[in-house]
Structures are given as C-alpha cells and as structure tokens.
Amino acid sequence: MRFSELAAITLAISLAPTASYAAASVYICALQAVYECHAVGDCKEANIDAVNLSDFIILDVDKKQLTSSGMGGPTRTEDIEGITITDKAIFLYGTQDQETWNATLTLETGDLVGGIASGKSSFALFGACTPK
To answer: What is the pLDDT of residues 63-95, one digit of tens each?
Structure first.
C-alpha cells in the first residue's frame, strides 16, 4: 500500500549527529529503513521509493511544517498538527487523507522513529536527523 510522501515524516538523515544537542528550530532528516506491516508479525522491509517517501525531510519546528526534499524531485510542504518539545525529545503527530502518523526525534542521538497507520496496513519508520 502506498501513502503520501510527507505522511512518512516523519523522518530522518544518515548524517551522524553530534553529541547531545538542545532542540533546534530546523532539522534535516533522512529515512534509513521502512517496514510495512499487514498483521501482527507480518512485517517486511519496504523500499523507501516504493512507498512514496522522500529521501530527505526538513523539519521546521517553529513553523510546524515538514518539507520533502528528494534528490532532484519536487518539494512538498505539510503542516504538523501537533508538536511537543521536552529536554530529551521532539514528539510530532498529524493526519493526512485517511492516514495518521507520529514520530519521535531523540535530541541526544538524533534518532528518528515514526509510524503511519494507513487502512489495513501500517509502516514503521527509522532514521536520523541533525540540526540544519
């Protein structure tokens, strides 16, 4: 099942983050792995392109927006419905069409973990972010 590019957010970059850092206002993120699940225990790694995700995502905390930034492809911007920032993480969530998504960016490591619920399947997303 395919879903919208930015519903994926959620998320992440292969750039190695520096040691612990405080919340910044803008992050660049890239996905490292995506798994599609159809039932409990029925999860398989999915190709990022095959599930309509962007190579890179810009997270703008102040504007509450995600912008896809593929290699040479068009960019798209989506609003983040909810965002909470603590001293350890940034929590994001939203909806788009018939999908819901959430993501957590761990500030100490830059790790990004997210999920998308889409019809009868779900997607688990893993990546990393670094301040821009």
So the answer is: 999 998 776 677 888 899 999 999 999 999 999
The CA-based angle 86-91-51, given to 5 degrees, is: 155
- Burial string for 45-84 (b: 16+ CB within 10 Å, else e) reads ebebeebebbbbbbbebeeeebbbbeeeeeeeebebeeee
The residue among 98, 53, 102 whose CA lies nearest residue 73 is 53
Domains of the chain: residue spans and CATH: 6-16+23-131 (2.40.128)
Q: Is the dihedral of CA 65, 47, 95, 107 positive or negative?
A: negative
Whole-model pTM: value is: 0.79
